[in-house]
Amino acid sequence: MVNLKVNGVSFSIGSADILKDVEFSVDSGEIIAILGQNGSGKTTLLNCINSEYRSKKGSVTVDHFSKDILDNVAKKDGPFDILDFSYLERSRILATVEQNSVASFPFTVLETVRMGRYSNKGEVEENSVEELREIYSLMKETEILGFAEGPVNELSGGEWRRVMITQSLAQNPEILLLDEPTLHLDINHQFELMDILKRTIKQRNILVIMVTHDISLAARYCDRTIIMENGEIVALGNTKDVITSDNLEKVFQMNARISYNEEIDGLEVFFVGKSNRDAIT
Amino acid sequence: MNHLISVDRKIKRRAVVGLIVTFALMVTVFFTCIFVGSVDLDFEIVIDAMMGRASWSQNYIVKEIRIPRLICAAIVGASLSLSGMCMQALFKNPMASPSILGISSGAAFGAALYIAVGYGVFQITYGTTIFAFIMSGITMLLVYGLAYQKRGTHTIMLLLSGMAINALFSGLTSTIEFFSDADTVSSIVFWILGSFEKCNWASVKIIAVSAIVGSILVLYNSRELNLIAGGERKAKALGVNVKNVRIMLIVGTCLLVASSVSVCGIIGFVGLIIPHIFRTICGPDHKYLGPMCILGGALFMMLFDTIARSLMPPYELPVGIITSIIGAPFFMYIMRKREKDIWSV
């Protein structure tokens, strides 16, 4: 069961501290939401986890992964610092779906998904029928088989997002990072995407960390939630303990009614309006 | 599952059929172009000449003039279109072409320098070529050095440095032209317009080595190029060592461009349009598009050069003019007809 630890990560650009001593530890099979206002450091944290950014202080470590991802046999015991991995090694365990990726070349959907197999360590032979079978089952799960032949630059936003997620899943990762997966999608496509995602990752026992603006979506779909403010974690824990009207008022200055809904097995958030606490104090 | 297998086959079949047809066309064009020229030669005479059994002058025309010239054109066409393909994917920019890194103008400056000043001092054989080649190397280092940042070289910085260096060397070349006499200016201009007139076996030897090394560097990284074309961060996340791959691709491109520019001047447009045309035929997968650009570039350049030397005999038009005048409308046609396959912005 893969474990990801963020150990006191700090990050700054110039004199501005974007992240201040962020620390948490999560295990596979969980969907974790990172919530926070614009500029609270959500995306920066994600970039520190996938080592796009090098943190000024602290480290990100992974341990207990089931796959043999390392090329060097004489490895020391974990936990492993994510920065010690080569690009290839890292991509075998960690996949990222970016917020604003665009399709420029007219690759077909099938070709695009297959690109996710780049770091494949010869478990399944490249371009073989077995590989195609794996890709087939993935594409079936994410419901993109219907346009496998179509060029990616003719897809709708929701379809493209699903293709990118499938490509990341084709990496066979144990950790999946998602940056605003539902941004700019229609409400029905948001739910469709999240349903597909939840089903797929529970099946594959993947650890998912998802940065999002959408509090209702996080409340409904995520097992645990982290709320960030000014580069610090202000709340962390089970979603029902973190997404509370108190926290929402404190961080987002919003009055909200929150209740558990049995039918969807998740929290329902109803925003009453902007809180006027500032006006009173 | 069967549907996916058939989709997979269809993609591959499209590319492979395209490759075979282009190869066949290229071979046909090569042999047809041997017959074309100011001296009329019959089929049998050409065959005899290739075997060395015809008269001395016929042998000479076929074996020492036409064939090396065609091979030179083929190598240059292949190099330019392959490097154009590489630049378009690397910079994710449909307008990228080999000249985007400023190498062509660097080479042109080297050639102008030799024609105006160097010739009087050194008088070396193939001086223009050697000067152009050295200057393209220097330009490459300048562009990369200018774009270098401690945290890693950014592609946009490379693009901007390329444009800046391009402007600098164009300016310097114009300065040389301004201070030169009319004869020198006309030979500089003629060189820059691009021509295969002076190509022989020696020039083939000069460009073949660096063209082959450059092609191998680009073709070897074709899978990585597919991933980089989708964004550098995405490629990194998928496991590509973007930094190393990019250096290999840029060195490869520079070798390809430097070799062709140094032998035959600046031939515009080929590097821009050939990759676009063949992307509509065999799809954007660089594993197939690379070989396709090599074959297609060779095919078109042999055709263009033959047209250039036989359109108004006994005069020869600079091939750069032909590539632009014929290439541009052809490209416009393809662009309108296959709009969707070209690119999406």
Relevant terms:
heterodimer; A: 281 residues; alpha/beta; Rossmann fold; six-stranded mixed sheet; 10 helices; 32% helix; globular; B: 345 residues; ABC transporter involved in vitamin B12 uptake, BtuC
Task: Chart the SSEs and their pairings.
The complex is a heterodimer of chains A (281) and B (345).
Chain A: E1 3-13, E2 16-27, E3 31-36, H1 42-49, E4 57-63, E5 80-81, H2 87-93, E6 94-97, H3 109-114, H4 129-141, H5 157-170, E7 175-179, H6 187-204, E8 207-211, H7 215-221, E9 224-229, E10 232-238, H8 239-242, H9 245-252, E11 254-261, E12 266-274, H10 277-280
Parallel strand pairs in A: 3-8, 3-9, 6-7, 7-8
Antiparallel strand pairs in A: 1-2, 1-4, 4-5, 9-10, 11-12
Helix pairs in contact in A: 4-5, 5-6
Chain B: H1 2-35, H2 43-51, H3 56-90, H4 103-121, H5 127-147, H6 155-179, H7 182-193, H8 201-220, H9 222-228, H10 232-237, H11 242-264, H12 270-282, H13 286-310, H14 319-337, H15 339-342
